[in-house]
Amino acid sequence: MNTGKKEEDVEIIFGCIKKIRKDQELLYKKYYGYIMSISLSYASNREIAQEIVDDTFMKVFDSIKSFDINQPFKGWLRKITINTAIDHLRKNKKFTHHLDLYELNGELPSIEAIDKLTVDDIHKLIAQLPDMLKVVFNLYELEGYNHKEIAAVLNIAESSSRTYLTRAKERLRDVVVKYCN
Question: Which of 49, 118, 160, 176 could be disulfide-bonded to 43 (CB atoms 3.0-4.6 Å)?
Answer without folding.
Answer: 49
